[in-house]
Amino acid sequence: MAILNANLIKLQSRASTKDEAIDEAVGLLVNEGKIDQRYGAAMRERETVANTFLGNGIAIPHGVPSARDLIHDTAISVVQVPAGVDWGNGDQARLIVAIAAKSDEHLEILANLTGVVGDEVLAEKLIATKDKQEILAALTGAEAQGTEAPITSTTPPAPLEGFPESFEAVITGAHGLHARPATNLVNLAKGYSSQIRVSFGDKVADAKSLISLLKLGAGHGADIRVSAKGEDALAALAALQQAIATGLGDEEEGEAPKAAEDTVSTGSMTMRTWEGAALEGVAASPGLAVAPVLQFGREKLVYSDTAENSEYERASLTKAIETAREQLEELYADVSKSSGVKHAEIFKAHQEFLEDSDLLSAVDALISSGKSAPAAWDAEINAQADQLAAMDDALLAARATDMRDVGRRVLKLLAERVEASSNLPTEPCIIVAEDLTPSETAELDPSLIRGLAMAAGGPTSHTSIIARSLDIPAVVGVGKSIFDLPEGKTILLDGTQGQVVTSPSEADLKAGQAAISAREDERDAQKRDRFKPALMRDGSRIEVVANIGEASEAAKAVDAGGEGVGLLRTEILFVNRESEPTEDEQAATYTQMARALNGLPIIIRTLDVGGDKEIPYLTMPQEDNPFLGERGIRFCLARPELFRSQLRAIYRASAHGCVRIMFPMVSQLSELLEAKKIAEEVRLEVGADPVEIGIMIEVPSAVAMASVFAQHVDFFSIGTNDLTQYTLAMDRLHPLLAKQADGLDPAVLRFIDQTVRAADAAGIWVGACGGIAGDPLGATLLTGLGLKELSMSIPTIPEIKALLRSQSLADNKRLAQKALEQSSAADVRALMGGAP
């Protein structure tokens, strides 16, 4: 069914205000039975959150998402106001396109509107026309002959001429081809030499161009066709078809926060009514903040508009892009460590923008025309970002900020000089800005930033996602009036309700500080009690220890309440250098850690490389399946001198503390026996006392043979990350499958249960050092399955110890047994919703 027809278009309106224009647009939709009259209020509410003026006299009012139940059928109405109405910020709207969308059927019209906005002549023609069919044709792509054209097709586009091979598919992700799935599609497509195109409606995108894919506007349920030509076309299409069928690794990107009662971890914060004057925005990251305002400013980048030597400009651009790529790789690593891989993936998408063929070709053309590299880059980045920003899909529009972030990163490297450095905070504050880029947000110091108040932006932007990961309260979409706040003025920011209280009363400040204190009390209590043992309510004791990789982290682990080190990743000593560390270097490092633990145990894992862990100077083999090749103990046994050197260093350090040795990736008994034989020879050579020796349980064969292995070791440590990937045959780093590689899958839990039962029968203990050990749900189930030790990242230690002290082992055992009976990880997590 068409969502725009002649009855939904009004020409020559005399509306004199924004409200009158919206009322007329709403009236058209109501008369056609498309919406409830009350949806008009939802459109006005949207205008208080974000101005819907696009440009060239065009505005696109639409309601807030919570009012979608007032929409009967997706439709669009058009009100032409030749004299114009004030749409705010000095903008005059003369063509009002009101949108009532239940899902994404309106995307093609929005895409067409992008073209109109960029064509001043066409925009003026539509504003002045007295023929409804001209408006209908421009917005739907139909010929102006009185026929209605459907906005989206119920069938995929026809095959592309010149592309003999293709398949049809439906985009199943909740948000369509937004950044993450589009990035995954691009990365897959780039693995093939063939030309690959994706068609949606009458648009065609290059599958190897992220920008091109995003501009398709293909939302949830979109019917697409993927076409290819070239020598590996069939292989490419087969891989892409499977990837699209499994969702392209999509997930709920940038899900906005739930209601306050669902998001506040301490339960101490409630919805409040503030007395002082407040600016309304959109809740982006929950929590309260009371602090002075800091108006954030960016550097001014100075560069020439033109250049004479185009080859020099191209070389400068290439160098800047390569440097930007390295910076993003470093940022990815930093954010992975502070906020998790999920949030760091944002910067992988940023890297993809740098390689976009459409973007680079357009920039090159501008350089050829005489533009300087920075001028050409800036112009094309902004042009592409403007097109994304004009789209009504919130996630796709938010990617405009990401593109500008990438653009500014490169532009800063190309600029002739940088003036007026950013106004970075030196004291606690609430930052006020237009809209921080993801890079700027990720580099903020959470100890100084109490909150973020942004004039623009949305709750699904990557900036908001990172703010939530850093636990910084944030309100976005407040509007430009936020800039009227004087520097240093104390304000109250309510990230849960989406309000910035600009003139808080004494009562507001008192209530706000009380709520903030209540939220921090639990964390403080956990920190104060961090040295208490994890003694459960029924007297059961669980050892909570740390995963570390550097000497300095040993003392930090103890200070966080860790009762030792459950995993020392020794491969950290081997990276970022040109040759392997000597025996003396290793012995000194291990000794320093053992002494810092002051008698607490430290489990030193022997070198675990291979798979995704590469160390160039070790001349690692080229393998088709590195995760099934020389990994862990296999690698060391194939290089006995390297192995013996490390073991000698470990035994030398054992004289200074409670040292245990652990062999990684053991899959066969012969590997364990050979490793123990070498270790004993080295021990006698060094003259050290015996130490406990254990193995990691990471592969199904180790589980199957656990009862046999248990006769030869002192302990097991379950590496849940690798055990999950090998049990489910899913690469935990795979862009499409990683989401399904869940350590709480019943298959993994059953393997853990089987391992513990074998260990119990042999009288040895079992620990875990994978990711789920430091997760509240995982810790609950692992202890219920009988694990005696949990090893985790240092910051999570106080929380997990406090959690275990609040539980009883008997309750956890009952819950674990129920988890073993579930059919999927989702079922396990649903069961855990009622966990104590």
TrEMBL record:
Q: Can you quote a single GO CC term?
A: cytoplasm
Which Pfam family, an example, fits this chain? PEP-utilizers
Residues forming the PTS EIIA type-2 domain are 2-142
Query: Which reaction(s) does its UniProt entry say it catalyses?
Result: L-histidyl-[protein] + phosphoenolpyruvate = N(pros)-phospho-L-histidyl-[protein] + pyruvate
* UniProt KW keywords: Coiled coil, Cytoplasm, Kinase, Magnesium, Metal-binding, Phosphoprotein, Phosphotransferase system, Sugar transport, Transferase, Transport
The cofactors required by this protein are: Mg(2+)
* Recorded GO MF terms: kinase activity; metal ion binding; phosphoenolpyruvate-protein phosphotransferase activity
Positions in coiled-coil regions: 307-334
Instruction: Output the GO biological process annotations, alphabetical, semicolon-separated.
Output: phosphoenolpyruvate-dependent sugar phosphotransferase system
Q: Where the protein is mainly located, per its record?
A: cytoplasm
Query: Where located?
Result: Cytoplasm
* Entry's EC annotation: 2.7.3.9
List residues of the HPr domain. 164-251
Please give the SUPFAM superfamilies that the UniProt record associates with this protein: Enzyme I of the PEP:sugar phosphotransferase system HPr-binding (sub)domain (SSF47831), HPr-like (SSF55594), Phoshotransferase/anion transport protein (SSF55804), Phosphoenolpyruvate/pyruvate domain (SSF51621), Phosphohistidine domain (SSF52009)
Q: Which family does it belong to?
A: Belongs to the PEP-utilizing enzyme family.
Q: What does this protein do?
A: The phosphoenolpyruvate-dependent sugar phosphotransferase system (sugar PTS), a major carbohydrate active transport system, catalyzes the phosphorylation of incoming sugar substrates concomitantly with their translocation across the cell membrane. The enzyme II FruAB PTS system is involved in fructose transport.
Its recorded name reads Multiphosphoryl transfer protein
Native species of this protein?
Pseudovibrio exalbescens
